[in-house]
Amino acid sequence: MSYDEVEIEDMEWNEELQAYTYPCPCGDLFQITKEDLKLGEEIARCPSCSLYITVIYNIEDFLADSDQNRRNKGLEPSNQQRITVA
């Protein structure tokens, strides 16, 4: 059984860990990555003890973010047409 349910908005982004974190009663941090969230994972685990929390979030927010990043990096074709100059 999950220790608690926590809204993603109540978690903090940790740049060093590249994960959302939330304080664990043991003194460490529950952690879950953006990649986990994109895959539909909702369990954030503490690396120091056996506790875990259920993360409440909208998966569409993370899928939309992923699609936008791909477009920004040029990994998806754009809607622009190519022009050949003679």
Written overview of the protein:
- The chain is of the alpha+beta class.
- It has a three-stranded mixed sheet with strand order 1-6-5, with no helix packed on it. It has a three-stranded antiparallel sheet with strand order 2-3-4.
- The model has no long low-confidence stretch (mean pLDDT 84).
- It has two helices and six strands; from the N terminus they run E-E-E-E-H-E-E-H.
- It is 22% helix and 27% strand.
- It has helices at 34-38, 59-72; strands at 5-7, 12-14, 19-23, 29-32, 43-45, 52-56.
- Strand 2 and strand 3 (19-23) form a beta hairpin.
Give a quick set of tags describing it.
86 residues; alpha+beta; 3-stranded mixed sheet; 3-stranded antiparallel sheet; 2 helices; 6 strands; 27% strand; elongated
